[in-house]
């Protein structure tokens, strides 16, 4: 044993000596390579059965979790985020999802377009990076008419999708496209009315907005499920093929590090907090027990993963493993 230790010490001495030499021989000129910055194009691709799914990043923005949490104090939110090595104003995502269903190109939500300033509006670029064009999109399915989900219908004053039908839950359209409802919401939500109406308008004018009722059949393999609470007509979409399932759940979760361990925490952007909490608890528990893949608009990009139950009303997020190849969830 003793001889082994002596043997091991020799390379260490050598390494220290060469380290000292390296320090003496550093070039005297200052290094001049500028930092490049930026990130890889914002898309991530995987498969659900034979359907190709592409997660798209519209942008990121500092999420004011300290100011918008309902049902937890700022200190509680801060402590939970610290457990995940995150500051109070951590970077929030704006994700959308493109699905190629046997040649039919379907988009779930559109990102924020210009409605979040420079923090959003990357969807068009992400679609192009992923090898498609917005002109190819056949159908856009909206989970709810908030700025960061419908705003990307228009970019720089121009409608983004030249042929797509925009499918909106009827209850959602009835609420946000009617200004009489503006008086019933808090001040955070009031500006959503004019902003969202403006981006839906060009599609209404060209006859390409289609409203659907709860329980309606849309595209074979994509089932809408009403999940009201965050908004009156908030709708999630279940994609199924070959025994595999992926739930596009819109804004069921805004602050993953906070709301998976405690689904009772809500957010001031919720239209009806008790209903939003009930919808979240139901969908989280269902996705966990069914072992569905989940795609979230505000979960760290690509926002795709599974949910594991860790207690009576506690859960954790398990991100999908990265792959360059076909992933069978
Ligand atoms: Zn929302």
UniProtKB/TrEMBL annotation:
Keyword tags: Hydrolase, Metal-binding, Signal, Zinc
Stretch forming the signal peptide: 1-22
Domain Metallo-beta-lactamase: 93-298
Gene3D superfamilies from the UniProt entry: Ribonuclease Z/Hydroxyacylglutathione hydrolase-like
InterPro entries (UniProt xref): MBL_superfamily_lactonases, Metallo-B-lactamas, RibonucZ/Hydroxyglut_hydro
Any Pfam family: Lactamase_B
PANTHER family in the record: QUORUM-QUENCHING LACTONASE YTNP-RELATED, QUORUM-QUENCHING LACTONASE YTNP-RELATED-RELATED
Family affiliation: Belongs to the metallo-beta-lactamase superfamily.
Name used for this protein in its record: MBL fold metallo-hydrolase
């Amino acid at each position: 044993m003793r001889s082994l230790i002596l043997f091991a010490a020799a390379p260490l001495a050598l390494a220290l000596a060469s380290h000292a030499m390296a320090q003496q021989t550093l070039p005297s000129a200052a290094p001049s390579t500028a930092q490049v910055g930026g990130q890889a194009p914002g898309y991530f691709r995987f498969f659900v059965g034979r359907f190709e799914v592409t997660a798209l990043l519209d942008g990121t923005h500092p999420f004011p979790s300290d100011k918008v949490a309902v049902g937890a104090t700022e200190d509680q939110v801060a402590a939970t985020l610290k457990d995940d090595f995150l500051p109070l104003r951590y970077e929030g995502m704006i994700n959308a999802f493109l699905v190629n269903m046997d040649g039919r190109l379907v988009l779930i939500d559109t990102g924020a377009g210009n409605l979040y300033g420079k923090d959003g509006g990357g969807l068009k670029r992400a679609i192009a990076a992923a090898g498609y064009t917005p002109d190819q999109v056949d159908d856009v399915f909206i989970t709810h008419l908030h700025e960061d989900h419908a705003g990307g219908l228009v970019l720089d004053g121009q409608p983004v999708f030249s042929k797509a039908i925009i499918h909106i839950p009827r209850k959602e359209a009835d609420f946000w496209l009617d200004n009489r409802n503006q008086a019933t919401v808090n001040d955070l939500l009031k500006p959503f009315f004019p902003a969202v109406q403006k981006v839906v308008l060009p599609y209404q004018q060209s006859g390409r907005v289609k409203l659907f009722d709860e329980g309606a059949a849309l595209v074979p393999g994509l089932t809408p499920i009403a999940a009201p609470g965050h908004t009156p007509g908030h709708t999630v979409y279940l994609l199924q093929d070959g025994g595999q399932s992926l739930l596009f759940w819109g804004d069921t979760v805004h602050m993953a590090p906070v709301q998976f361990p405690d689904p009772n925490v809500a957010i001031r952007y919720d239209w009806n907090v008790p209903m939003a909490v009930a919808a979240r608890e139901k969908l989280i528990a269902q996705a966990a027990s069914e072992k569905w893949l989940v795609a979230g608009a505000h979960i760290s990009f690509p926002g795709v993963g599974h949910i594991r139950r860790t207690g009576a009303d506690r859960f954790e997020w398990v991100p999908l493993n990265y792959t360059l190849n076909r992933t069978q969830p």
